[in-house]
Each structure stands twice: as C-alpha cells, then as structure tokens.
TrEMBL record:
Belongs to the bacterial diacylglycerol kinase family. GO terms for biological process: phospholipid biosynthetic process. Its cofactor is Mg(2+). Substrate binds at E66, S95. This is Diacylglycerol kinase family protein. It is found in: Cell membrane. The chain crosses the membrane at residues 30-47, 93-118. Its main location: membrane. It is a multi-pass membrane protein. It comes from Spirosoma sordidisoli.
Length: 124
C-alpha cells in the first residue's frame, strides 16, 4: 500500500531543496539567468518541439548537476570542516562535472540557437 502522506512530504522536501538551491547558491542563480535568456531566445526563434525537448533537457541536467554538486559540497563541509586534500579533490571533481555539463549545454545551445540565428540574419 502506498503511503500518500509520505509521498507528498517527500515532494515538499524536494521542492524546498529546489527553492534553497536557487535562493542560496550563486552558481545556480547564474544558471537560472542563462536558462531564462535561452528560453527567451528559443521563443523568439520559434524552436521546434524536438529542439525544445533538447534545450529543456540540457537546462534540467545542468540544474540537477548543480544540485548534486551543492549537496556533495555541503556534506564534505559537514564531515571535514577544515582543509583536507581528499575533500578538496571530491569538491573539485563534483564541480568539474557541473562544468562539463554546462559546456555541453552551451555547445548544444549554440548548435540549435546558432543555426536559427544564422538563418534569420542570412535571410535579411
């Protein structure tokens, strides 16, 4: 039997995590701003459904990676408040993962939006 109260409570906790991510984490706010600009450009360029699916997936992946990175960093800070070379390596690796996804998202965005921009400006 499904305990729906637990399900609802879990979603509430997850929602609070998302709110906290964008409220307290500077990099997440940067990703939010850039995502807003990409969505605005996508609306202006009238992307296809497939292009929107790809763009939204990229945005979601970067946000999810940022959330996981933030969770790892907070856990590291709790476990080892002082400097430790292994903790530094863990933090660097997790932030590197976000950077890899962010670079990939930029490339995907450039391929999709750039193609539309070229078409728009070349036809004028």
């Amino acid at each position: 039997m499904i305990d729906w109260q637990k399900v609802v409570r879990s979603f509430r906790f997850a929602g609070q995590g998302i709110v906290d991510l964008f409220r307290f984490e500077n990099n997440a706010r940067v990703h939010l701003l850039l995502a807003g600009l990409v969505v605005g450009a996508g609306l202006w360029l009238q992307l296809s459904r497939t292009e929107w699916a790809i763009i939204v997936t990229q945005i979601g992946l970067v946000w999810a990676a940022e959330a996981v990175n933030t969770a790892i960093e907070k856990l590291c800070d709790l476990v080892s408040p002082g400097y430790h070379p292994q903790i530094k390596a863990v933090k660097d690796l997790s932030s590197g993962a976000v950077l890899i996804l962010a670079i990939t998202a930029v490339v995907v965005g450039a391929l999709i939006l750039g193609g539309h921009l070229l078409e728009r400006f070349m036809s004028n």
